[in-house]
Structure formats: C-alpha cells, structure tokens
Write a structure and sequence with these properties.
The model is unreliable at 5-13 (pLDDT under 50). 33% of the residues are buried. The protein has helices at 8-11, 18-26, 29-40, 179-185, 191-204; strands at residues 4-6, 49-53, 59-63, 72-75, 80-82, 98-101, 104-106, 116-117, 123-125, 130-133, 142-145, 157-159, 170-172. The radius of gyration is 17 Å and the shape is globular. By secondary structure, the chain is of the alpha+beta class. The chain has a single domain (4-204), classed as SET domain (Beta-clip-like). The strands form four sheets. It has a four-stranded mixed β-sheet.
Length: 205
C-alpha cells in the first residue's frame, strides 16, 4: 500500500481533488524506490548510518561509511502528507516535516527524522527524496542538509546552532536567502524551490 497521508486538519477544511492525490502519489517513497533502483541500481541501506549524540543539536544522523561527492547517500523514507498552514503559528505544527511542493510534505520516518540542519551542509537534494553528497564524506561524519532548501513558508523561522563559520543564526524560507547563500546550495535544490524563488524575486523587482 502506498504510504500517503492527509492531515486531519486539512480534511476538516476541504476534500482533496484528483490533482492533489496525484501529487501525493508522485512524491511517494515507493515510487522513488523504483526510480532509483531502475536508474542506479540503488537500494536504501540503514546499516550505513547510526544515530548518536550531536551536542547542542540533540541526536544526529551519522555515516558509518565514506561517500563520494555527487553520490546518492540515501532515499528519504516516510509518508507523503498534504497540509496547508492557514496561520503563521501553524507553520510550526510539524517541525520534522520538509516540503516537496505546494502544500505537499514528507514526514521523515523514524531514524531519518534525526537529520539536522547545517548552514554548510554535506548533503543536498537531487529530487524530493534523493539525498546526495555535496562533497566527499568520511566515516563518522554527521549528515545534514540546509532546511531552507526545502521550505517555502515565509513566516517560518528557526534559530540555528549548527556551529559553522557561515552560520546564519536564523533559518527561514528559501525565498529569503541572500543570493550568495542560495548559490552555495546549487545545484542541489529541488526544481520546485528553484522556480518558487525565481518567481518570488521577480515579483519583488
């Protein structure tokens, strides 16, 4: 069975239309598994990772093996969800989720939900679920990505304590990144967010 889920809050507001259901299906973990196996012969292997203490960030996801720059590290497991925040406060209801399209979210499954943010990440997203190495990764390194690369909610802000020299102190929606900060993330920003940012900036000019 496909792992799709619609939040109860949204179900109280309106029923999903066929286009919404198609979007949920398109971003499903099962479909991503088939795609990456056919294209790369890739299968997720949780034995390559472990969860351990990451200091002030709490628990973190760490690599037990080396990965080469550009290599596929893992597929994000977890259900696809549909949710639209109606107020700024609702942007904080599901802190572990990350966005993959307009009102379409992925809730990382247990284990992968320990991946932390970094303002100088070693992972990026090639697609909505394909996390790839932005540089060579050594065994024992904590794995992380930039949360701004998958968030489009302008009211959302998170304090950052990643400890990087380039730490922004506050993390927000991709539309609010400076040009320099945004370009550092490329090319590993999903197409939806690239287009969203371009349209946002075009509207402001």
């Amino acid at each position: 069975m496909l792992n799709l889920f619609v939040t109860s809050e949204h179900m109280l507001r309106k029923s999903l239309n066929p286009i919404d259901w198609f979007k949920l299906f398109k971003e499903s973990y099962q479909l991503a598994q088939v795609r990456t196996f056919l294209l790369y012969g890739f299968k997720n292997n949780k034995d390559n990772f472990l969860i351990k203490d990451a200091g002030v960030k709490g628990k973190g996801l760490f690599s037990k093996k080396a990965f080469k720059k550009g290599g596929l590290v893992f597929l994000m497991d977890g259900p696809t969800r549909f949710f639209k925040a109606e107020t700024p406060e609702e942007c904080y209801i599901y802190p572990d989720w990350y966005s993959v399209g307009k009102n379409i979210w992925i809730e990382p499954a247990p284990f992968f939900n320990h991946i932390n943010h970094s303002c100088n990440p070693n992972l990026g997203l090639r697609t909505s679920r394909e996390f790839v190495a932005r540089r060579d990764i050594e065994p024992g390194e904590e794995l992380n990505f930039d949360y701004s690369s998958t968030d489009d909610e302008l009211p959302w802000v998170m304090n950052c304590s990643c400890g990087e020299a380039s730490c922004r102190k506050e993390v927000g929606a991709i539309q609010l990144l400076s040009e320099q900060q945004y370009e550092r993330l490329l090319p590993y920003v999903p197409k939806y967010f690239q287009t969203l940012r371009e349209n946002y900036l075009r509207g402001k000019s």
